[in-house]
Write a structure and sequence with these properties.
Helix content: 40-55%
Strand content: 5-15%
Number of helices: 18
Largest sheet: 7 strands, mixed
Shape: globular
Structural class: alpha/beta
Order of helices and strands: HEHEHEHHHEEHHEHHEHEEEEHHHHHEHH
């Protein structure tokens, strides 16, 4: 019943958007005008995001720099709470015809907004001789994610990106003489070997070897590593595939050997607290959440204030290297004037400049969206602080692990039909949790997933 209510709500939102706007059949860039000059008049734009106090302070500082560059532009920066809150408020604002000028969001959010023609294509701004940017300087997979919509149109720009990392109890691994690299991934097969030593109830052992925070990410990313099928931008559910089934059977075996766990093992949403307690000796989660996995003085867990190591996420031996790219992008709303659109674009251009994206990454734990941001002297110095600055050691190690995976980044397909890409993602996570909890076999989990999603 709960899932039915969630589906009906999602469907009603999609239909609401579709009813508010009608698609005209015009080419994607028709109706978008890029002004040759910024008007002298006062221009006020509103930017919706999800950042709390710490990140908002840095964002406001970057906006203040922007307003100095363009004195006639004033930016109102407003946090809307969680991503779910922001999406709900955005849909309400679209229905009411009172939207912000620009906002952050995930591709599946933007896919729903596109059903109502509520965001504009950015290609003319990107390619403009005066105001444009060099897309080849942006991380390739980020550009691909933001141009996955029909016709390859860029409806958003990469902004606050992250990925996954593996944090481990270095004190325990050192005890067994196991050395992991900060930049080279281990394989799932190697983790199985480590589990034979580390899993147990001894002094230097844990109940499980590794926790994976997001069951949905595990399903999606592991299916890629096994060269299996998941879904596509047309919304097809393709999980009844030999390689995907093989992956799920393998994960089921890892669950049985206690090599791998999900947070539901402890009735939690994340595994960081249980990592600190010593219930599990490794944990995989977002690079933006490293602080939650660092034991502080007085940590009351089994290992006290143990030393932490950070590594890239595991890969399949002989498989397809794949890592989830995460984090929101940024788009401009349709209910804007030409002047407001140009001002919004200039703000996006400033926030994604090499200097700003490097500063944002260093201070927040997100990643630069430009190669020039990674290569900047400031960011390279930050990567090196793992070697000499204990105050920034773990943040720098996290950045190094993330940087080492950049060529493996892959993104989720986005669509918003009767079933949305977020619906498929949710069901993928539930399928793995059912396999972990042994409430369903692999085949039953796949069959249930298809039954929930295929109409």
């Amino acid at each position: 019943m709960k899932k039915l209510l969630v589906f009906m709500l999602s469907l009603s939102l999609v239909l609401t958007l579709s009813g508010c706007y009608s698609k005209t059949g015009e080419t994607e860039t028709e109706g978008v005008v890029v002004l040759a000059e910024l008007p002298d008049e006062e221009i006020n734009i509103t930017f919706w995001h999800i950042y709390g106090q710490g990140k908002s302070e840095l964002l406001d500082a970057l906006i203040a720099e922007f307003e100095e560059m363009y004195p006639n532009i004033t930016v109102e920066s407003i946090s809307q709470g969680s991503y779910t809150d922001l999406k709900s408020k955005a849909i309400s604002s679209i229905s009411a015809g009172n939207t912000p000028d620009l906002l952050v969001g995930y591709p599946d959010h933007f896919a729903e907004y596109l059903n109502g023609n509520a965001i504009i294509p950015l290609d003319l701004f990107i390619n403009d001789e005066t105001w444009g940017v060099d897309l080849t300087d942006f991380i390739d997979s980020y550009v691909e994610e933001n141009s996955q919509y029909e016709g390859g149109v860029m409806y958003s720009m990469p902004y606050s990106k992250s990925t996954e990392m593996m944090v481990y109890n270095k004190t325990v691994f050192d005890h067994y003489g196991i050395t992991l690299s900060n930049t080279e991934p281990v394989t799932w097969e190697e983790l199985e070997t480590y589990a034979t030593q580390i899993v147990g109830d001894g002094e230097f052992q844990c109940d499980y070897l590794v926790n994976y925070d997001s069951s949905a990410n595990l399903f999606i990313n592991a299916s890629r590593q096994w060269d299996g099928q998941y879904t596509n931008t047309a919304g097809e559910v393709l999980v009844d595939d030999a390689n995907t089934v093989s992956m799920l059977n393998y994960m089921s075996g890892l669950f049985d050997s206690k090599t791998l766990a999900l947070p539901i093992a402890w009735d939690e949403s994340y595994g960081s607290a249980n990592f600190l307690k010593g219930d599990v000796c490794m944990t995989i989660g977002s690079t933006a959440g490293i602080a939650y996995n660092i034991p502080l003085p007085g940590n009351v867990g089994k290992f006290g204030q143990f030393e932490v190591g950070i590594a890239p996420i595991p890969q399949k031996e002989g498989g397809v290297n794949s890592v989830m790219q995460q984090g929101p992008n940024i788009a401009i709303m349709s209910d804007t004037t030409d002047a407001e659109r140009l001002a919004s674009w200039l703000l996006i251009k400033h926030l994604t400049s090499a200097e700003a994206t490097a500063q944002w990454a260093i201070d927040t734990g997100y990643l630069p969206v430009r190669y020039s941001g990674y290569e900047s002297a400031e960011y390279q110095a930050f990567l090196d602080t793992a070697n000499y600055d204990p105050d920034w050691k773990y943040q720098s190690m996290t950045a190094n692990a993330a940087y080492a995976q950049v060529d493996f980044f892959q993104y989720d397909p986005a669509f918003a039909n009767r079933v949305t890409s977020s619906d498929v993602r949710d069901e993928a996570g539930l399928a793995l949790e059912a396999i972990f909890a042994k409430t369903k076999t692999v085949q039953e989990a796949i069959a249930n997933m298809i039954a929930q999603l295929v109409w």
